[in-house]
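Chapter review: from sequence to fold.
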Amino acid sequence: MITLKPIRDDLVEYEQTLGMQEYWDDLGSYWSDSKLEKKIAMLARFVFAGGKIEDVLERYRDGISEERARRVKPCIFRYLGALMPDGNLDKHSSLYQELDSLPESELVSRFTEKLRECVKESEGRDSDDKICMNYEIVRK
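The token string follows.
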């Protein structure tokens, strides 16, 4: 379970955080700055608060190279794989092939649906008795 502070400010500021290389460039040095499960929890928190991953990706692509932009899709596949029952999305599976053939907008839509299905959000209290949000990944 991952515990995060609730989003208190508007989503634009949070969108800026999620629009960083750490989330969308798995070959970059920043990718390993946080664990995959935490990234998924952060993305889920954003979606649950009404944010759109499409907006995050649009912001991310502003001013980056085409080479970096091409890493978005593999990152989405890594996130999707982490939500699968065995924690992996086999490149040779029919599901992978189906998802790989989709336009990115549909792939993002499917990823958003999978976040809603597999990440459970609950309110809790931290050690200082402040409200926090707990995120649990339930692989399906």
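Two observations follow directly from the output. The CA atoms of residues 12 and 138 lie 28 Å apart. The chain has a mean pLDDT of 90.
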